[in-house]
Amino acid sequence: MITSISFENFKSLDAFDLGDMHFHLSPFTCLIGLNGSGKTSLLQGFDFCSQLMSGTIEEWLKRREWKSNDLLNHLSQQRVIYGNVEFYFKNLGEISWDFAFNPSLMRCTHEDIFMAKDRSQFVLEDGRVSLFFGSGKTYEYPKGLSYKGSVLSILDTETLHPAIHAVKTYLSGLRSLDMLTPQAMRRRAKEGENIGYGGERLSAYLHGLSKARKEQLLSALQGFYPQVEKVETSALRAGWKELKVTEGWRNSKNKPLLTDARHLNDGMLRILAILAQTLPPENGEKKPSKKQVIPHCLLFDEIENGINPELMPKLVAHLLQAPQQIFVTTHSPSLLNWLPDEIAKEAVILLYRDSQGGTKAVRFFDLPTPKKRLELLGPGEVFVDVDLEAMTQEALALDPTLP
Ligand SMILES: Nc1ncnc2c1ncn2[C@@H]1O[C@H](COP(=O)(O)OP(=O)(O)OP(=O)(O)O)[C@@H](O)[C@H]1O
Ligand SMILES: [Mg+2]
Predict the structure, then answer these.
(1) In this structure, are residues 198 and 184 in contact, taking their beta carbons and an 8 Å threshold?
(2) N or C, which end of the chain has less CB nearby within 10 Å?
(3) Ligand 1 pocket member 153 (CB < 6 A)
(4) What is the number of the ligand closest to the CA of 178?
(5) Is ligand 1 within 6 A of the CB of residue 11?
(6) Mean pLDDT confidence for 238-254
(7) Residue 403 located in a structural domain
(8) Nearest 5 degrees, angle CA 109-CA 110-CA 113?
(9) Rounded to an integer, what distance in angstroms lies between the CA atom of residue 398 and that of residue 22?
């Protein structure tokens, strides 16, 4: 899993550090902060790293309708984005990936993966890729490789050091759903190896789930909406897939209410999209069925949107048990309130802007006032009780990187 992430010069994330020096990230992270503090930008930052690793950065910019310049911090003259992601894998130990990305070239001009366990290193420098093994052995690739994003996107990492492959697999299997919208989820789709950035391939994704997974999904959905009897998908002409949900209300002929995705409520669509990707593995299942891609790490922006507070305890319990690392952003005290105190202390991160306009991060319950109030109140009650502007001042006063 990812234990820390840092950026220089990516949007408002300049000299930005989440984790690293002060703490390690947990399997579940909840980002809070005022409007404009940088929550969505941070999810985009994670997604940016994922696209670098997949070599799909140009398509990603196009989909977001961004120019390469939009990636840069507009308050700085720098033309290069620097980043660092640190990982911990049970069998491989600590691994760190550093990169320097040049938006004019659309590729990383420097990369470094350091494997702490055996002190091996993978380096891209001056267009040349070298592998230094802890044993002293070195391997060099020929110069002049042609790639976009990370050079690892074009290398068959399965044949390289397992730690390099783990970094590539983890990051390319990260999915930021900061553009998830019910409008997109209502669409019919043809192919769905994932649900799509806005959820636009949800119907095809659900259609491709195994029978056992569909049953698992239905029972999870019934935990939220007990009136649901069936979730059906069907293949239409030309390969389009359609999604329909049957609910227990009956008409005078005892026929249940069958609703097409186009008319389903927003909350149910969002819960369906969240559940479909966070189901625990089926018994004995190692890999997901067929071509379906279950992300290793999922990021949801304003996860509470369209979901009523009564469902929050179930949603939080579900996310805490998810097999993936999860990041959410929220403005919802009700979400925070359902986090056990011990988890909240580690998981809740406050993002704020410093006097230079840069986004900064601090563990919310490390700040003196929230820490004190948590002794008496629940995490969500503390969130309501404190003024986030004042907490920004507390965080600035504690920030060791500021003069
Ligand atoms: N290229 C850039 N360079 C510097 N700052 C930027 C850049 N792009 C956006 N910003 C700043 O980041 C802010 C947007 O931050 P973001 O959308 O991440 O906030 P948020 O915490 O998600 O807010 P909300 O709660 O309203 O969703 C903008 O208002 C702007 O101040
Ligand atoms: Mg936002």
Answers:
(1) yes
(2) C
(3) no
(4) 2
(5) yes
(6) 93
(7) no
(8) 145
(9) 12
CB-ligand 1 contact for 103 (6 Å cutoff):
no
What is the Rg, in whole angstroms, of the alpha carbon atoms belonging to the chain? 22
Residue 290 in this model has a pLDDT that exceeds 60: no
Same domain, 64 and 161: yes
* Percent with pLDDT over 90 in the chain: 81
Q: Is the CB of 359 under 6 A from ligand 1?
A: no
Contact between residue 13 and residue 330 where contact means Cβ atoms under 8 Å apart: no
Q: Looking at the predicted structure, is the pLDDT value of residue 20 above 80? A: no
44 lines ligand 1 (CB under 6 A): no
Ligand 1 atom nearest 38 alpha carbon: 18
- Taking the centre of ligand 2 as the mean of its atom positions, its distance from the CA of residue 320, in whole angstroms, is 22
End residue of a domain, out of 254, 276, 293: 293
**Sequence letter at residue 309:** P
- What is the number of structural domains in the chain? 2
CATH of the domain at 139: 3.40.50
161, exposed or middle or buried, with CB in 10 Å at 0-12, 13-18, 19+? buried
Domain interval for residue 282: 181-293
From residue 97, alpha-carbon distances to 122, 164, 170 in Å are 9, 9, 12
Burial class (CB in 10 A: 0-12, 13-18, 19+), 84: middle
CA atoms within 13 A on the CB side of 14: 19
Q: Which of 8-22, 165-179, 278-292 has the lowest mean pLDDT?
A: 278-292
**Distance of CA 70 from the midpoint of ligand 2 (Å):** 16
